[in-house]
Amino acid sequence: MDETREPHGQEQTKKSDDTIAYIGNDPVMQSALDVLSTLGNKKKVIIKSKGNAIPNAVAVANIITEKMLNGNSKVEKITLDTDAAAGIGRMTSTIEIILVKI
Amino acid sequence: MDETREPHGQEQTKKSDDTIAYIGNDPVMQSALDVLSTLGNKKKVIIKSKGNAIPNAVAVANIITEKMLNGNSKVEKITLDTDAAAGIGRMTSTIEIILVKI
């Protein structure tokens, strides 16, 4: 059993019960529906985004917690960080928003 | 003593010891230096931003906590919210990042 599937693309599923959703520059409502469907069968979703797509991730988190799953979900944790592309000194801000069902 | 100065513009000072810094689309390093000087004589700074300026606020928080005041400051709390402009239904994401000296 040495063929390990290298997780990549939109959704990476870690062993535990949470899923990572990368938010880019897709329409916010479409991303929100993706995250909503993921939260449908998971307890936790980790929304990740960087640079100019960060406002989209914030909007998705707001849409889920204030509209779609209002009162049934909340922001558990928010982490800010910096992604330094090797060698070229450009720093990109990153955000990680953990949404959980309550 | 009825002349009350209406707080507006870049810095609003509340009665308590924290200052609000609104981050817009100014160069990030310039905003970071503003916040640094504020943190110089305050214990806490509340960074606020909205919409497409949110990545700038995240960058400022990272520059302060990871570079300028590395080890002497931290992110105390992050709040995400939505600003609904009255009547026209446009929703704008907002972020509030509280930085404190440690």
Structure keywords:
homodimer; 102 residues; alpha+beta; Translation Initiation Factor IF3; five-stranded mixed sheet; disordered N terminus; DNA/RNA-bd_Alba-like (chains A, B); Alba-like_dom_sf (chains A, B)
Strand portion of chain A: 35-45%
**Oligomerization status of the protein chains:** homodimer
Q: Report the principal-axis shape of chain A.
A: elongated
Topology of chain A as a string of helices (H) and strands (E): EEHEHEE
The CATH topology annotation of chain A reads as Translation Initiation Factor IF3
Proportion of residues in helical segments of chain A = 25-40%
Question: What is the rounded Rg of chain A?
Answer: 14 Å
How would you describe this protein?
- Two copies of one chain form a homodimer.
- With 102 residues, chain A is an alpha+beta fold.
- Chain A has one domain (11-101): Alba-like domain (Translation Initiation Factor IF3, 2-Layer Sandwich), CATH 3.30.110.20.
- Chain A is built from two helices and five strands.
- Chain A has a five-stranded mixed β-sheet, with helices on one face.
- The longest helix of chain A is centred in the middle third of the chain and has 15 residues, at 54-68.
- Residues 1-10 of chain A have low confidence and may be disordered.
- Chain A binds chain B through residues 51-52, 54-55, 58-59, 61-62, 66, 75, 78, 80-82, 91, 93-95, 97, and chain B through 51-52, 54-55, 58-59, 61-62, 66, 75, 78, 80-82, 91, 93-95, 97.
- Chains A, B: It comes from Marine Group I thaumarchaeote SCGC AAA799-N04.
- Chains A, B: InterPro entries: Alba-like_dom_sf (IPR036882), DNA/RNA-bd_Alba-like (IPR002775).
